[in-house]
Amino acid sequence: MALNKEFLGKVYPAGPAYAVGREKIREFATAIGDWNPAYHDVAAAQALGHRDVIAPPTFAFTLSFRASAAAVLDPGLGLDYSKVVHGEQRFAYDRPITSGDDLVCVTTIENIREAAGNDILTTRGDISTVDGEHVVTTWTTTVARGTAGESA
Amino acid sequence: MSASVAYADVEVGSELPPLTVNLQRINLVMYAGASGDFNVIHWNQRVAQAVGLPDVIAHGMLTMASAGRVVTDWLGDPGAVVEYGVRFTRPVVVPDDDKGATLEITAAVGEKREDNLVRIDITATFNDATVLGKAQALVRLA
Q1: Which domain holds residue A66?
Q2: Cα dihedral sign, B6-A127-A86-B33
């Protein structure tokens, strides 16, 4: 089923704040095999000018992915999640996510299109602190393979 | 932010130190737990093959994270990354053996901009084919 283009621009408000902790950052960095001291060692991160250990650049996806569930699973949008693959991912940072941050993510449906029989959805996640400081914006493009030509 | 690389010291075409990343099943399990992405195709061969994949595949975001290390290792300070984006063009198949999948990551300076910004173009290769398209990071050098 083609995606409902009336959902273009729809905004999904942030859920509860995500508390970024040192051990979560260390766990994530370890899982990607990255021993950069800025992720693991508070003194090393502070020597680089950061308040505490910082998260690897792609950590922001774990927040935006969770927040985007309301959009991609919105029944009215019509995305067949069983056929979805991750097509593109992009991040733009004002600063790195840092241990101690309390973050919220607002999700916006930024683009809906069809190509080669696929439904293609781009969502934007605006991640900021609970005090309103913008930290990072994420763009996630998901592709539902072969669903654009199907009738409802 | 304090990148250890100086803007004046790089030119378009300057190559970053390459990186080899080996991904085995344990790495996919660790990434699933750390990221919260428990999609079954990343840890269950039966389900992966049922949906038409040759075997379990790595999370695209794990490939993206691995490829990004070629930039952050070079920068010293990962906080100097201003933008990072990729297209996922081919799956990274991770068999259940003691070899796993090996990614070869290379990168070079693609463009120098104002304000000490430099675009890095990244290439990630698995089994002699690229697995990421238009993989680019924008970084601010010292």
Answers
A1: 5-20+56-144
A2: positive
Q: Supply the ipTM of this predicted assembly.
A: 0.97
Residue with the two structure tokens 């910004």: B117
The pTM (predicted TM-score) of the whole model is 0.96
Distance CA A51, CA A47 (A): 9
Contacts of A56 in chain B (CB under 8 A): 65, 68, 72, 78
In chain B, the number of structural domains is 1
- Residues B88, A86: C-beta atoms closer than 8 Å: yes
DSSP H or E segment with residue A43: helix A42-47
Look at chain A and report how many structural domains it folds into: 1
Does A89 contact B at CB distance below 8 Å?
yes
Yes or no, beta carbons of A54 and B78 under 8 Å apart: yes
What the block records as the tokens of B10 is 């790089």
| Alpha helix positions (H), B1-121 | 25-35, 45-50, 60-75
Here the CATH number for the domain that contains residue B127 is 3.10.129.10
Contact A56 B1 (CB under 8 A): no
- pLDDT tens, residue by residue, A32-71: 999 999 999 999 999 999 999 999 999 999 999 999 999 9
Chain B residues in contact with A21 by the CB 8 A cut-off are none
